[in-house]
Amino acid sequence: MCGIVGKASFTSQKVSEQAISEMSEAIQHRGPDDRGIYISEDETVGFGHQRLAIIDLSPGGHQPKSYLDRYFIVFNGEIYNFQEKREALLKEGYVFHSQSDTEVILALYAKYGKECLAHLRGMFSFALYDSVERTLFCARDRAGKKPFKYYLDDNVFLFASELKAILTQPEYTKEPDYTAIHHYLTLQYCPAPLTGFKNIQKLEPAHYLFIDLKTKAVEKKCYWKLDYSKKDTLSDKQWGKLIREKLEESVKLRMISDVPLGAFLSGGVDSSAIVAFMSKHTDTPVKTFSIGFKEEKWNELKYAKMIAEKFKTDHTEFIVEPKAIEVLPLLVRHYEEPFADSSALPTYYVSKLTRSHVTVALNGDGGDENFAGYSRYSAFRISTWLEGFDTLNRIILQPLTAFLASKIQTDLFERASRFSRTLSQDYRKRYMTYTSYFTDEQKKALYTDSFREKVSSENTDDLIAARFTESGAKNKTEQAVYADFATYLPDDLLVKVDIASMAVALEGRSPFLDHEFLELTARIPFSKKIRGLNNKKYILKKSLEGILPKEILYRPKMGFGVPIAEWFRGELKTYVAEKLLSEKALSRGLFQKASLQRLLEEHLTTHINHAPRIWALLTLELWFEEYFD
């Protein structure tokens, strides 16, 4: 696990070691154990690497790494099947000078070229330079666990694990991307390839860039995609066996490490399953880490403790009483893009706690995407069943829920009104209303005329709707699951964990996102993922019966959140008003003062919870202060 940077010139301008050093310095937190720099003989290409030593702790793991004095690479991530591939290449006469997975990638590229990606099982982003052909091959893993951000124009190509490194270079002029901000206010993140910075992009998951430095030709291609169109007909018992075997294999692969490792343990189904399988493959107790809050509604520690006791783990827990005002600017700096997932806060705290004990931590990320675990899927399924009752909806449901929402100002009735209002819409647009932070209607009231004009042609719904279409799934809810896998997962959830963990030099690993496991679960009929009205993750829970306690398997899902609604009515009330209504914030020309005041007042005086929207506006203002003031 590391941080990578690089620069390539298309002109006579040379790439200096100082430039690469400046880029590396900006992301040194990602790899405090070692730094390496490579400058090509003609000084047109430079690579930098910040190393967090995990496998092959000897100097053999140093990067940038070369192969055959022709290929040069900087690599961030882990290849879990590298030993198997190394053995096969050795039999074919390939020679290695280290025990690292990095050198295996180079040998695979020497043998297969771009097709080397089909041989990699793991998480990765890398840039590989062929000094003979003068080409750059840059790639990102299938699920998007490892980031790759870049700037490209006619003169230069800049890339890095975090765009902070790109900001150090004079070729890039910093400018906010208002289209990205518009989408962010709907989604709580900037959808790929957008980053919030104009002309800086992030490479999409399962994509590669191939750049010919001689001709400036650029090829960007998707090399892998989940296919939901093919389903296998198996019994619950057969599926359970396959799920257990493949998940256990995935966990075992991710336990390869030359440094101490442990696991995040929330007490939910997914992280508990990971700990259960880890405990089968170690002679010492698994080190597990949990955090909770003093507010009982948000506290899952008792469930985590139940799993820790069952599997006799070496368990550490911590009650968080975060000083949000103090830590928020730090988080905004680290996340670098506009980012409004408030669970970044506990993720940062649990990462910091974990790093004081281990260097690698497994987690349960991806369980909900594999097995349709989010509550919104149930609401969406109900809406698809009601599509044929338009008259009933128009005459009874819409007027009734609108009336109740106006008289009883609570989240429940506001959501019910939104639900009935959208039943006649295209199902993809309807799904967006369930996941939006700010709806189009709310944006219309919030935006200034000038901001609205800047983004008038941009429609966030279209971005997500395209993902429904490409899924190959026949079931509408399964299309929504794929859309989340392709957008929400890599652009929000995986960003949240990567940035929070790498801020403290901790490596996170996600067995549920092993691509072979993903391909298996894509073949499971959707009726086995959600049973009836609300029995979510049915087949996963069924497969884990006898392994996990039923109190864990069948308890209500809590999610990993923080009590921001209470904070905005208490300790953060004054802080957020001062930030959002300040002369500096209003001078940015994005939002109307009266609309902001109304939003804050409604949160304070009614039972409508505007906390997610307030958090999005607050972190956006802090982002402007950090990167543009």
- How many beta-strand segments? 19
Strand order within the widest beta sheet: 2-3-1-9-8-10
The termini sit apart by 32 Å
Question: Given the C-alpha coordinates, what overall shape results?
Answer: globular
Task: Quote the average pLDDT.
Answer: 91
Which runs of at least 5 residues are low in confidence (pLDDT < 50)?
Answer: none
Number of helices: 27
Helix content: 40-55%
Question: Which strand-content bin applies to the residues?
Answer: 15-25%
Global structural class: alpha+beta
Radius of gyration: 25 Å
Characterize the biggest β-sheet: 6 strands, antiparallel
In words, what does this structure look like?
With 629 residues, this protein is of the alpha+beta class. The strands form four sheets. Strands 2-3-1-9-8-10 form a six-stranded antiparallel β-sheet, covered by helices on one side. Strands 4-5-6-7-11-12 form a six-stranded antiparallel β-sheet. Strands 15-14-13-16-17 form a five-stranded parallel β-sheet, with helices on both faces.
